[in-house]
Amino acid sequence: MQLNNNVTEFILLGLTQDPLRKKIVFVAVFMSYLGTLLGNLLIITTIKSSQALGSPMYFFLFYLSLSDTCFSTSIAPRMIVDSLLKKAAISFSECIIQVFSFHFFGCLEIFILILMAADRYVAICKPLHYTAIMSHRVCSILVAVAWVGSCVHSLTQIFLALSLPFCGPNVIDHYFCDLEPLLSLACSDTYVINLLLVSNSGAICIVSFVMLMISYAIILHSLRNHSAESRKKALSTCISHIIVVILFFGPCIFIYTRPATTFPMDKLIAVFYSLGTPLLNPLIYTLRNAEVKNAMKKLWRKKLISDDVR
User: Fold this and answer.
1) pLDDT > 50? residue 203
2) What is the pLDDT averaged over residues 114-119?
3) Domain 2-309 is classified in which CATH homologous superfamily?
4) 288 pLDDT band (50/70/90 cuts)?
5) In a 3-state reduction of DSSP, which class is residue 165?
6) Which compartment or compartments is the protein found in (predicted)?
7) Would you list the domain boundaries of the chain?
8) Half-sphere exposure of 70 (CA within 13 A, CB side)
9) HSE of 45 in the Cβ direction (CA atoms, 13 Å)?
10) Mean pLDDT, the chain, as a whole number?
11) What percent of the chain has pLDDT over 90?
12) Quick one: how far is CA 98 from the chain centroid?
């Protein structure tokens, strides 16, 4: 399908074309990406190193941090480099790869959030059957299904992108390649493609968001029968999950569930879910979770002791 295209590269306009503002973007994105890497890699290392964090909740949190790291990496490094360039060009092939990786890890994050909500539902509403239902084998199968589902979704995005003929212009008014801004450059009627985009990405966002909100509403309703201490602990976990869900799905629903029209605020809104959420997730899950903080302290003490011995 690419043979029908006269465009071999795209020009990304980024968040701004002003030289001073581009420097500000460079510093902001660099610091954000560095924080994302440090925060998520710290969670990944802590979960893998601590025996106390062996429950399914932390098994899923491990994959959430992994998907956050990869999700941010699909956007931030290129954005950092582009902010230093006068003309930010990306080849057609690199653009398609970015579309795939962005949607793959973004969709994986959505599925992991659903699995985390399911885990909390079973833990709070079916405590006596929790161990049997959420066994390590079941959790591994669920994560594998999430990876396969994300791959199917991303391949669909690639198929839609490759079906678009590009004759020029080749300037993308965005800071990364995505199907939505690519639609405005296609030299053909994109009504059907946009309809497929909304029915794919849009449906995933809306259905997943509704499922998550319903599951957490059921969980919060069931907490009235628990003791004050267990209710407080469950509320702390659920509230942190709900914050993540709202921060991630709000902007996604705005971008992917409407007709093929672009607004000036689209790029800024995209910053929330492409760069903001991967940065905030480690803060939300560590600052509101005593078990993770205690495991990090123990890991740090072990490292200090091992360094002293040497």
Assistant:
1) yes
2) 90
3) Rhodopsin 7-helix transmembrane proteins (1.20.1070.10)
4) low
5) coil
6) Cell membrane; Membrane
7) 2-309
8) 18
9) 12
10) 85
11) 29
12) 14
